Amino acid sequence: MKIETEAERADTLSALLSGRFPDERGRYGPFGGRYVPETLIPAHERLERGVRRWLADREFCAELERELHDWVGRPTALSPAPHLSRRWAARVWLKREDLAHTGAHKINNAIGQALLARRLGARRIVAETGAGQHGVASAAACARVGLPCTVYMGELDMERQAPNVGRMKLLGAKVVPVTSGDRTLRAAIDEALRDWVGDPNGTYYLLGSAVGGHPYPYLVRELQSVIGREARAQIQEKAGGLPDAVFACVGGGSNAIGLFHPFLGDESVEIIGVEAGGRSAGLGDNAASLVSGRPGVLHGSYSYLLQNEDGQIQETHSISAGLDYPGVGPEHSLLRALGRVRYVSASDAEALEAVKECCECEGILPALESAHALAAAKLWAAEHPAGKILIGLSGRGDKDMPTLAQTLLAPGAETAPSASGKWRAPGLSAAKARST
Ligand SMILES: Cc1ncc(COP(=O)(O)O)c(C=O)c1O
Question: For ligand 1, is residue 250 a contact (CB within 6 Å)?
Fold first, then answer.
């Protein structure tokens, strides 16, 4: 499928809005699909049948809704941000996924898939994690539904997200360090897939973002869309109408697609996904697949990737472990091609500055991932006076204390932004060096 002319773009957007993606081949226009090892095809097909059956089952949906309400703590709040609003000369609203059980949006997907795995007769769960939030959410959800859980985590991420490793263990999960490859999320996904290949019938792979072979991007989007449905209703009720712009950070893309999806048909709403700009725009220095990448195949689907001229996937860098991934979900690639969502990046330094500003102004410590969305929203606000802005605060920053200790809290770090307005953190180069 080509999306080159304006007419093709308009047709594809209307197909998207009428719910025709993913199509029967699991594609979102030219993106998506199912590029997985032969041994995993039956497991994906079984999962696809399960998704079709159980997501339409009234009893299953009622159970999921009960768990989201009673255990996860939904609906999460939509908080006005009066002090950021004053500083930015805007009207800022924060969708508080940091207040969900376990501290991030990842739990919406984890509990949904854990309930599904039980219906599908799984005996054990494997999961991967980058920032540890999906690992913690999976461990908690597995404890809740009574299934054993193994989480693969890159060695480097175990270091920079140390608080989450202990949480996973306390919640009963086995945490397996991954020492191969880039020792971050990409290598962890490779290992989880390898584990799944060993027992595709008894093991359920609880994938943590809107990536992977069909039907995972669809399944994760459906489970995360609760964020956007709630936010859309809340902002209309509390702020008297739709926002002018919606922002979310994009790693694999699950919190973003969940927030964006219910707004896609609202023409007046500008939608902006924010990737990790890292330390520079150079290949290897960031994790901005949609901003700087080209389409290719990774982890089961065709989507934008950071690769060199020979198609070799590149190592990435971001101060936030959860955004440190060379690929992105296929639906985001389609949204980029259609121009319905604009994708930008925020640098490590901008994200740190946003953490500091959000803490000081609103009394909220955001995750480093979420801080990328705050940073881009601030820039947008400068060009759109009095604009009404909805920002997805995907998680809380407690997990980032090891990185923050080396940067914002490092001895000698300034206690106020520099004259240029940019945070100058002496430990930033150390934190970056550790994550390369
Ligand atoms: C708090 C938080 N936000 C965002 C992300 C990025 O993931 P995704 O793009 O799937 O929402 C992560 C990943 O671990 C995370 O922990």
Answer: yes
Q: Which atom of ligand 1 is nearest to the CA of 224?
A: 11
Q: Are strands 31-32 and 149-154 parallel, antiparallel or unpaired?
A: unpaired
With cut-offs at 50, 70 and 90, classify the pLDDT of residue 417: very low
Assess whether 106 carries a catalytic annotation: yes
Closest CA to 379 of 413, 345, 409, 427: 345
CA-nearest residue for atom 1, ligand 1, is 395
Using a 6 Å cutoff on CB, does residue 369 contact ligand 1? yes
Q: What is the Å distance from ligand 1's center to 51 Cα?
A: 23
**Residue 41 one-letter amino acid:** I
pLDDT per position as a tens digit, 282-320: 999 999 999 999 999 999 999 999 999 999 999 999 999
Of 106, 356, 388, 399, catalytic? 106
Prediction pTM value: 0.95
Domains identified in the chain and CATH numbers = 28-69+106-216 (3.40.50.1100), 73-103+225-434 (3.40.50.1100)
**Starting from the edge strand earliest in sequence, which strands make up the sheet with 294-298, in order?**
27-28, 31-32, 301-305, 294-298
Cα(313) to centroid(ligand 1), Å: 21
- What are the tens digits of pLDDT across the range 383-416? 999 999 999 999 999 999 999 999 999 998 864 4
